[in-house]
Design brief:
alpha/beta; six-stranded mixed beta sheet; five-stranded parallel beta sheet; 16 helices; 39% helix; binds iron/sulfur cluster
Length: 363
């Protein structure tokens, strides 16, 4: 497949890994931000190709993993209302809330449906004028344009039985929160290529300067990641801290301006709680006043009660790169994809799921 197969070939992968070996003179810790990148790294065994001085740690870029348990509880409560059709991407259904997941709510009779786009949910709202259709708007900057578009379109068509439960998070504030932590061990970032396709990478430049940290915008295939690692190591070894773009076949410095404009028209930046990490200022999106009537939490007020996490789950430490999934005592024993204790074991982008699927038998 064009633009895929050529980024998975073995010989160039070995050449890139050898280049990293030649460059490396001391230990470096590099964090890939996105859960999709984590899955490629673990599935392809990239860590095994690298010299032992290079440690890859996995970041908070799995939107399902960082959606707070309180919001899952709110989703379950809204979904249980008889007038509601609750729509979500499939990943969210099995994420445990404090009492039930959306999947369990569906089993108990709630009308919970999997959709592949917020516009599918909007179509359901058009087709079911007597019902209230709620879409669970989860994701980073990558999914924000489509979610903004659905609300904009609903307003334009006067579809008043559509709303979204907003759980949008932003990457740069999370990177700053990780770098500001006294326990931070991250020395370079591989930024998420798809997020930068939308947002560009200008907003990473002040972060690279302020924290003296190299940031390489990186794609998702094995060769993308190896090249991103090579570029990060070259910067670390030479004492540079710049933003570089490995994913130039998709990313421009300014990003996708029409998508940014649609996001800015519908959403505004606000504080957001991250599961396992806590509240990070200016790290989320919420609907602007002009579109607030499409906010599911305004339409269906629910008490956002603080909910307890599993006491065994160390997802917060995993998402900040402080621990690896295999260091969790519950990994692959009490916590498996069939019996998840935390969101990173459920999501198709979760680090714990990646280690379970591809790495649990590796030493
Ligand atoms: S293995 Fe399970 S319990 Fe441990 S951090 Fe991952 S999700 Fe949480």
């Amino acid at each position: 497949m064009k633009f895929v197969d050529e980024y998975r070939e073995g010989a160039p992968a070995l050449r890139l890994a050898q280049a990293v070996r030649r460059l490396t003179t001391r230990p470096w810790t590099i964090m890939e931000v996105c859960g999709g990148q984590t899955h490629t790294i673990v599935k392809s065994g990239l860590q095994d190709l690298l010299p032992p001085e290079i440690t890859l740690v996995h970041g908070p870029g799995c939107p399902v993993c960082v959606t707070p348990v309180e919001l899952i509880d709110s989703a379950v409560e809204i979904a249980a209302r008889p007038e509601v059709i609750f729509c979500s991407f499939g990943d969210m259904l099995r994420v445990p809330g404090s009492a039930r997941s959306l999947f369990e709510a569906k089993a108990d009779g709630a009308d919970v449906r999997i959709v592949y786009s917020p516009l599918d949910a909007l179509k359901l709202a058009r087709e079911n004028p007597a019902r209230q259709v709620v879409f669970f708007a989860v994701g980073f900057e990558t999914t924000a344009p489509a979610n903004a578009m659905s609300v904009w379109q609903a307003a334009r068509e006067g579809i008043e039985n559509f709303s979204i439960l907003v759980a949008h998070v932003l990457v740069p504030p999370a990177m700053e929160a990780i770098l500001s932590s006294p326990n931070c061990r991250v020395q370079a970032f591989l930024a998420a290529g798809h997020v930068c396709t939308v947002m560009g990478y200008q907003e990473y430049e002040p972060i690279a300067q302020r924290y003296n940290v190299p940031i390489v915008v990186t794609g998702f295939e094995p060769l993308d990641l190896l090249e991103g690692i090579q570029m990060a190591v070259a910067q670390l070894e030479s004492g540079r801290a710049e933003v570089e773009n490995q994913y130039s076949r998709a990313v421009r410095r300014g990003g996708n301006r029409p998508a940014q404009q649609r996001i800015a028209e519908v959403f505004e930046v606000g504080p957001r709680a991250w599961r396992g990490i806590g509240e990070i200022p200016s790290s989320g999106l919420r609907l602007r006043e002009a579109y607030r009537r499409f906010d599911a939490l305004t339409r269906f007020p629910v008490a956002l009660a603080r909910a307890a996490e599993s006491s065994e789950c160390i997802a917060g430490l995993v998402l900040q790169g402080l621990k690896k999934p295999k260091e969790c005592p519950a990994f692959a024993t009490r916590c498996t994809p069939e019996t998840p204790l935390g969101a990173p074991m459920v999501s198709s982008e979760g680090a714990c799921a990646a280690y379970y699927l591809y790495g649990r038998h590796r030493p």
